[in-house]
Structure formats: structure tokens, C-alpha cells
Amino acid sequence: MHNVAIVLAALLSLAFFSADHAAGEEAATGRDYQTVVAASSKPLIAESSYRLWVPDDTPVIRSLFVINMRGAGRRLFVDPEWRAMADRNSAAMLYCEFEAKSVRDNGYGLSILKACEQFAETLNRPELRHAPFVLWGHSMGGRVAQDFVRFKPARVIAFHIALRANPTSKELMEEEAAAVKVPGLYLMGANDGKPADIREHFREARRNGSPRAWVWLPGQSHWPKGMHFEKDETSVIDWRAWAAHDIVIQWTEAMIKLRLPMNVDPRKGSVDLLPVDLTKGWVADVASKEHGPVSKLDAIDSAKSWLPNEKVTQAWASDSISESD
Asked: Any signal peptide, and if so, which residues (predicted)?
């Protein structure tokens, strides 16, 4: 029997949230589980601990929100709005408790997959072996999300890179054709480090026909106000603004609907995700904030974000600022 423990979700929430954190959103109920993946040399698997949150009344888990512990990931894992989104979409949330800069060559990518296998076996949830991922990472955790897309692009519905302050090696910024096709949302603070390489990563992906979007978050620094590695005194208002819930949650749900086949059952095996049709949707100019349907603006323009629909585009226009602001 693998090392899996059950913890009431409410107890975990109390560890990270004060009462005001849950204000404005009716918390989804669910259960927390834990597992530890043992290290292995053949194949190379890194040792790490993982938490899994599963909403109540979820007969089949259709996707997994995979969150890296770096930076603000701990807060996002217990965020009531993200848990409500998981509940609405028959998704579970996986929290990865490791420090890493990448996952492809150091065993952490396989460690994540091994954790899914262990949870699948112990919880009698065979769908966890195949359920596709939505990846989220802050700071170095964003690099982990970005690298997992290269590691297993067919397993990823979409990914988020939240507030990257420092530059990255050229090798880690490369991207293969299959990875380029994975939708991504780049959330960058207007008061953060603004490394040029991640901006070029977005532009290069767009030039190659990637369904990705860039958001400049007004007034936001690398961390939310009141938060750092071992501190979380962030109010709900400051947290929501920094995490850009108003666009991120709409964008994520839209990508799930676009890419995850409606009647798919991951208990039966691997899921073939649907490609994104760039001839549909909306585009928005990062520099000027001009936006409109693809039929009126160039969909393959490295200066423009591709967005799935008008509603998400309006949220983008409200949440972001132009480069000249």
C-alpha cells in the first residue's frame, strides 16, 4: 500500500486561509489525499510528496489541475474559486511539493506521473492514470509548467505561467512543434522583473501558430501584497487581483471546453485532446489593447494574444494594461 493519507479538505483550508479568504465564493466540498513518490534511478524518478484534492460527488475525474508549490502555489491549491472551478468541471487538484527548475531530465516529470498512478491505485480511481492536465506555476513554478508542456504535450490541456521575474537559459526556452500547439496564458506583473526572454517565448509561439495570450497585470509585483515564501497575509482582494481570477478562471474553463472531448472517459485510456482552431476566437493586441474577432484581425500575429471567445477577451481588456501604460 502506497503512503496515502486522507485529510478533510476543510482542515487543510484552515491551515492557509483565514475566514475572509473564502468570502464571496461558496467553497466546494471535497477530500484531501497525500502520497510520497520514492526515488528511482531506472527509470529516473525524483522523490517528492504530493497532495490531491477531489471534489465530492465526482464519479469520474476528467482532468487534473496540477499546481507547483513554488511561490504562491500553496495558496492557489486551496483557493475556493479554483476549487469551485474544479468541481464544475469534474476536475481534481494535484499539489506538487518539490523545488525544481525543470522536469524533463531530472525525474520530476515522471514523478508527477507516478504520483497519479499511485493515487489511481490506492483510491480506485483508474482515470487518474490518463486524465489530462491544466498546469499552473508561479515564478520558477511557471518554468516547471512550461517544461512539462515540452515533456508530455499530449497530456496538457493548457498551462499558466504566473509572474516570471528572472531570465531563463536558452535551452529551457526552446519549444518543439507539439508543445507549441498547447494553449498558454502568460500572466506578468507590470511592476515585476519583465525578463525579455519570456516575452520573446510568447512572440515566437504566436509566430508559430500557438493559441496563447499575454496579460500585463497593472500594479502587480512578483508576489501578491502581504505574501512571500513563508508568509501569507494577503487579503482576498489583493490575492484575486494578483492571481487575475476574472480572466484566468474564464480562460481555463474555455480551454477545457475547447480541448476536452465532451464524452471522454479517461478510465478507458489515454485522452486525445482536441486541437484549437485559430480561425475562430478573438485576438487582442498586447501593445495597444485593440481587440476583435479573428475575422477582423490577424490571428497569427506575434504582437497579439489569441483568446477563445468574446467574454474572455472582455475580461482580458479589463484585467490587463497596454505596454505603453
From this structure: 1-22
